[in-house]
Specification:
By secondary structure, the chain is an alpha+beta fold. The protein has 17 helices and 22 strands.
């Protein structure tokens, strides 16, 4: 056997950088793909912090189950649910609580119900929309005239421009902006419709009007389902009996023993060295790999690649991220004058408050608070109120407490309060995002087995993140099989 043959028999070495959901799923998918292979790859996962999971986190606390990051995932995009099935977690899934499946929108300081069937932008139940006090009669007439406004689909357009063009300014400011702001912590004047909510663009493209599209969908019993919730389409969301970290823990269990898990080890640089990648840890030590999956926010990936490909770094860093803080409270339900019989509240920017949204976490899913108590998560900051993030935890708690008192009449001793900060964790897909993604992906495709996963390019939600990670692992694996 000559030396090159013996080299060929060495297992491929893959570095996965980032131990959030996308890093864990990348490892799991690589293991699935290499199952039965005579030469499974050697995989090292590097996570700079001392825990795996990234923005995922479920913390048990005195009978509460606190979700510090994501608290549910959508099922109309199959990425996550297929993973859940493969992990054998189907029996751990729980549905949202049908009893409280509605949301509120603040108007002139008062929490009012979102009309039944309102789907982020478009009313699916016209009667409920017409009866809602959230917008004025002229505002409703303007919104309903959407049916007759000819479609003018544009290559890329801001969410605000699209919503105002179709439904008018009042519907945008009072209902659409707070819904979208609450989900993406974003400025809808900058957010790209095509990159965030393409289904609405497709509705305009196909039917000329969203209301016409909804009418058609209603004639199709499968698509017309779920018109009776208000706010996000809550019946489409699931979580796990013991919180979202069931998914993260199960992934860790599945890869442990097959993947070298290195927490507290950040990566600072990647360079090409002959046919391999030279990966430098933050402590200065280096190792060589045949493939690298960057399961990171794009700003972090850009930093690591700055000596390797400055143009790619510049493109990755053009994708902006917003920071958010979540003030979490646990308290007796009797502290509130309002029944809090809902999944949460969103706050329009025109209300000029200091919070974006309130999630009644223990109303969404059972088991998140002791009997007779409630867990509330108050979202602050985001793209439109970044300056709030400069405040201390105590100040943020005080602001959130004051807002809860004003809006819901909440007062009295709490079981706990705490702030969770997510710095530069929420990517903002601004108008022009698709071109940035195109450039970035073209560039990555010129480097064999160097892949990008995570929430920076193709979707912020868990199913999209799972898909990017699986695809990154698959491309990496194919590259080795092609060259084997
Ligand atoms: C507050 C909040 C609530 C959310 N709620 C929901 C929800 O309810 N439903 C939903 O579908 N989605 C939700 N999301 C979005 C979703 O949770 C995220 O998009 C997803 O979890 C991101 O996973 P990720 O692996 O791409 O990134 P992250 O979780 O950010 O993981 C990246 C990891 O990389 C590590 N890292 C960074 N730089 C380096 C380096 N140089 N070397 C090594 N490691 C490094 C970080 O420490 C981090 O652990 C929410 C997000 C946030 C912030």
């Amino acid at each position: 056997m000559n030396s090159s043959e013996s080299e060929n028999r060495e297992p491929h070495r893959i570095a996965v950088v980032g131990g959030g959901l996308s890093g864990l799923v990348s490892c799991y998918r690589l293991l699935e793909l290499s199952r039965g292979s005579t030469q499974p790859p050697q995989i090292d996962l590097f996570e700079q912090s001392d825990r795996l999971g990234g923005v995922f986190g479920t913390v048990p606390h005195d009978g509460y189950l606190i979700e510090t990051g994501a608290d549910m995932f959508i099922t109309n995009n199959p990425g996550a649910i297929r993973l859940v099935e493969r992990l054998g977690l189907t029996n751990r899934l729980i549905e949202t609580n049908a009893r409280y499946r509605r949301s509120l929108i603040l108007k002139n300081g008062k929490p009012l119900p979102t009309p039944v069937g309102f789907d982020l932008m478009a009313p699916r139940n016209l009667l409920a929309y017409v009866r809602s006090p959230l917008i004025s009669i002229p505002g409703k007439l303007r919104a309903l005239s959407e049916y007759f406004i000819p479609g003018r689909p544009q290559a890329d357009e801001s969410l605000a421009s699209f919503a105002i063009r179709r439904f008018g300014r009042e519907a945008f400011e009072r209902m659409i902006q707070p819904m979208i702001g609450g989900i993406y912590t974003a400025d809808p004047e900058k957010l790209s419709l095509r990159s965030t909510l393409p289904r609405f663009l497709e509705m305009e493209e196909q039917y000329g009007s969203l209301l016409k599209a909804i009418r058609k969908e209603k004639q199709n019993p499968l698509k017309g389902a779920d018109n009776e919730a208000s706010g996000a389409r809550y019946s489409l969301f699931l979580s796990f009996d013991q919180g979202m970290s069931v998914l993260q823990d199960s992934l860790i269990d599945a890869i442990k023993g097959h993947v070298t898990l290195q927490t507290g080890v950040g990566i600072q640089n990647i360079e090409r060295k002959q046919n391999r990648y030279l990966v430098t840890r933050c402590n200065g030590t280096t190792s060589e790999y045949d493939g690298v999956i960057l399961a990171l926010p794009t700003h972090a990936a850009g930093q690591i690649l700055s000596q390797f490909d400055p143009d790619l770094t510049a493109a990755l860093q053009k994708i902006e991220y917003a920071s958010a803080a979540v003030a979490v409270f646990g308290m007796p339900l009797s502290n509130s004058q309002h029944p809090l019989d809902c999944f949460g509240l969103v706050v329009p920017a025109v209300e000029r408050r200091q919070i974006l949204a309130v999630s009644c976490t223990s109303r969404k899913f059972n088991g998140r608070a002791p009997e007779g108590h409630i867990q509330l998560r108050v979202f602050m900051g985001g793209a439109m109120q970044q300056e709030l993030l400069e405040k201390s935890d105590e100040e943020l708690i005080a602001i959130a407490r004051q807002e809860l008192a004003d809006i819901f009449g909440i007062q009295g001793p709490e079981d706990f309060s705490r702030v969770v900060r997510w710095n530069r964790a929420m990517p903002q897909y601004h108008v022009g995002h698709q071109e940035k993604v195109h450039f970035i992906e073209e560039r990555f495709s010129t480097y064999p087995a160097l892949e990008m996963a995570g929430n920076g390019l193709h979707g912020v939600g868990i199913p999209d993140v799972v898909r990017t990670a699986e695809q990154a692992a698959e491309r990496c694996w194919q590259q080795f099989n092609r060259s084997a």
